[in-house]
Write a structure and sequence with these properties.
Strand content: 5-15%
Distance between the termini: 21 Å
Helix content: 40-55%
Bound molecules: phosphoenolpyruvate, magnesium ion
Number of domains: 3
Radius of gyration: 26 Å
Number of strands: 16
CATH architecture of the largest domain: Alpha-Beta Barrel
Structural class: alpha/beta
Shape: globular
């Protein structure tokens, strides 16, 4: 008999079950400021010893963790431990303590000096700034007798609970021990979701009532349903987890190509950001690249690379997927992806400002040169017709002039459906171009008027929102009528359950983070097209995201 309570429901972002004791990421301590109260002369030596002991404890813990971690995690932990015992840091802190500072305040001030130095040096040194902050927080907590802050590295399996995870937390997450992640904040496109997806850890975000769960409580996390429950009957919970582990093993052995159980072909593609990313993606069973985010190649480029240089960069992605589909997206610079060589005026509201295709209004040459470079790369790599799509299109005029520029270069034009106007007028847009690709991240942001970067709006930036699903339906139906492909390349495609609904709505391809490819492919192989269509129809009748997800589960699980 099941006797459990749903502790909290959030947004499931990585499907899978985990059952283990909960363990919270401990918050950073409140940092002490340099106080006017000086440590008396005769106590300063002891204060310095207290500082040294705390730092040595922190370094020893990090070293011990490095010894049991592997790969990049071991390297990061080892390097952070070495940084903690840096002689320069010690000299600076001891000097401050000798002048009367407390050990805590000396740590804060010494690290602040180091952070300023590292930031000035730039490059790799600047990237260590987060590690310095981490060392400071750990040492100050140790000095104050508080639990160690940050992501714990447990000795046995846990479900990790946190407010939210930062990119710097990734190095220490070991999927062998972290059997699930639940956060109070975050959304489907938050760092937590991206990290969990990469590591294949069941994950629920935006679980607002998570705070009710105490450390040590046995919890069952369900990353598909988006629930975190406690009080489950252990044998029953374990059996569910075992069944899920079997499903995950099936995922590991999935090799593609994408098709439903009754044989309907569904292209399953990877999203990539550069040559290295494409080479890594080629290790997964993706059938090509459905979204090459070209702007991500240039996030630190101060000058626009010449056409030939750009062609070399783009050619790397074509080389990683020889003879396979590669869809280029022209520069989506601006807002959350500023590119230094693209002039951005200061904007009050950059997500609604001059980004993507709109950059061409002031500087048409930028797009022209990029299209020349893509055409050059395609010619150099087998001469296949390159597929190129424009981001942030909102009007037919934009679509028309983009399509003409592509066709002049013998390339196949497409558009991203990110602005609701394109979904609403999808037939007219499809008359101009060869394909559409629905960017559900921005489509959701603009449909729900909710900043995709704001963790507190996660419930709104959920692609299961019925209004978003209806817009997808409009775009996909237009594709069916015009017999032109309409795919999805936003994070929604990486959700195996939602992927089935998208196919049921008439979408013909799905492009996603490479690590999600096998899970989506496996899920599609367990359902028949008619089941997806019935589920999609039922989901379209729902009025809330929660209802939509649970209806889909009823039809498809
Ligand atoms: C999207 O908006 O869904 C998309 C795929 O583009 P990006 O996430 O790069 O804005
Ligand atoms: Mg987008």
């Amino acid at each position: 008999m099941i006797d459990y309570a749903i502790a909290t429901t959030g947004t499931g972002v990585v499907a899978g079950l985990g059952y283990a004791p909960a363990l919270w990421v401990k918050p950073a301590p409140v940092l002490p400021h340099c106080s006017k109260k000086l440590v008396p002369d005769d106590a300063r030596e002891a204060e310095a010893a207290r500082w040294k002991a705390a730092v040595e404890t922190v370094a020893a813990r990090l070293t011990a963790r490095a010894a049991v971690a592997s790969g990049a995690a071991a390297e990061v932990l080892g390097a952070t431990a070495a940084l903690a015992t840096d002689r320069g840091l010690q000299r600076t802190a001891i000097k401050l303590i000798s002048a009367g500072s407390t050990a805590e305040a000396a740590m804060v001030a010494a690290i602040a000096q180091f952070i300023a130095k590292f930031e000035k040096l730039g490059g790799l040194m600047a990237e260590r700034v987060a590690d310095l902050g981490d060392i400071r927080n750990r040492a100050v907590s140790e000095l104050l007798g508080l639990p160690e802050p940050g992501v714990p590295t447990p000795e046995s399996p846990i479900i990790l609970l946190a407010e939210d995870l930062a990119p710097a937390d990734t190095a220490t997450l070991d999927p062998a021990l972290i059997h699930g992640i639940a956060t109070r904040l975050g959304g489907p496109t938050s760092h937590t979701a991206i990290i969990a997806r990469q590591l294949g850890i069941p994950c629920v975000v935006a679980a607002v009532e998570l705070a009710e769960i105490a450390d040590g409580t046995m919890v069952l996390i369900d990353g598909a349903a988006g629930t975190v429950t406690f009080g489950s009957e252990p044998a029953e919970a374990e059996a569910k987890v075992q069944a899920d582990a079997k499903r995950r093993r099936a995922v590991q052995s999935w090799q593609g190509p994408g098709r439903t159980q009754d044989g309907t072909a569904v292209e399953i593609l990877a999203n990539v950001q550069d040559g290295a990313g494409a080479r890594a993606a080629a290790q997964f069973p993706a059938q090509g690249v459905g979204l090459f985010r070209t702007e991500l190649c240039f996030l630190s480029a101060q000058h626009e690379p010449a056409v030939a240089e750009q062609a070399g960069i783009y050619g790397e992605v074509l080389a990683a997927f020889p003879g396979q589909k590669v869809v280029f997206r022209t520069l989506d610079a601006g807002s959350d992806k500023p590119v230094p060589f693209v002039a951005h005026a200061r904007e009050e509201n950059p997500a609604l400002g001059v980004r993507g295709i709109r950059l061409g209004h002031a500087d048409p040459g930028l797009l022209q040169r990029q299209l020349d470079a893509i055409a050059l790369a395609a010619t150099a790599h087998g001469g296949t017709t390159a597929k190129v799509m424009a981001p942030m299109v909102a009007t037919i005029d934009e679509a028309r002039s983009f399509a003409a520029a592509c066709r002049e270069r013998r390339m196949s034009p497409g558009l991203m459906v990110e602005v609701p106007s394109v979904a609403l007028l999808a037939d007219a847009f499809l008359a101009e171009v060869d394909f559409l690709s629905i960017g559900t991240n921005d489509l959701t942001q603009y449909t729900m008027a909710a900043d995709r970067m704001a963790p507190s709006l996660a419930a709104l930036t959920d692609p299961w929102q019925p209004a978003v699903l209806r817009l997808i339906r409009l775009a996909a139906s237009a594709g069916i009528r015009s017999q032109k492909p309409v795919g999805v390349c936003g994070e929604a495609a990486a959700d195996p359950l939602l992927a089935c609904i998208l196919i049921g709505l008439g979408v013909s391809s799905l492009s996603m983070a490479p690590s999600a490819v096998a899970a989506v492919g496996t899920q599609l192989s367990t359902v028949v097209l008619e089941q997806c269509r019935l589920a999609a129809t039922a989901v379209l009748g729902c009025t809330t995201a929660l209802e939509a997800r649970s209806t889909a589960l009823d039809f498809l699980s």
